[in-house]
């Protein structure tokens, strides 16, 4: 049975379960299907990455405090986070993957890192 490359359509020679004729075709195919499909996704993912970098930079010890002014001056966008954690005591933490923050008082924030 003849199989053709999923990327370029060329005939595949070799193992029966091969899907691509070369590493280049495999990479091109996977890059196409994994890229952000539109500007909205790309912009949101960029904002999430930027917020994550800012929290990582400010929270080197796994638990620290910072101000809203400092976060904003670095370009942090409070509208973009990956999940919310509400504790039994009623506290609300906003997370970007494993980096989180919670408002304390007077625009002071505690930064935490989730243990994996």
Count, helices: 3
Major sheet characteristics: 5 strands, antiparallel
The secondary-structure element order is HHEHEEEE
Mean pLDDT: 92
Can you give a write-up of this model?
With 116 residues, the chain is of the alpha+beta class. It has 3 helices and 5 strands, in the order H-H-E-H-E-E-E-E. The chain has helices spanning 23-34, 39-58, 68-73, and strands at 63-67, 83-86, 92-96, 99-103, 108-113. It has a 5-stranded antiparallel sheet. A hairpin with a 2-residue loop joins strand 3 and strand 4. The longest helix has 20 residues, at 39-58. It is elongated and about 70 Å long. The mean pLDDT is 92. This is DUF2116 family Zn-ribbon domain-containing protein. It comes from Flavobacterium plantiphilum.
Quick structural overview:
It comes from Flavobacterium plantiphilum. This protein is an alpha+beta fold and 116 residues long. It is 33% helix and 22% strand.
